[in-house]
Amino acid sequence: MFGGFGGFITTLLIEATGSPISAAYYVVGVALITLVAALAMPELGKNELRR
Fold this sequence. Notes:
By secondary structure, this protein is an all-alpha fold. The chain is built from 2 helices and no strands.
């Protein structure tokens, strides 16, 4: 789950908030960050390869 610290982070969030739903907020937050990063990347599929 998002690398080696994912389980630690979700456990920490659940213990800090007392709510198991906080793990879902973590997943949604990481997904939104990933979406923004993917949309910010330029399209390179139509460029010709350089030699």
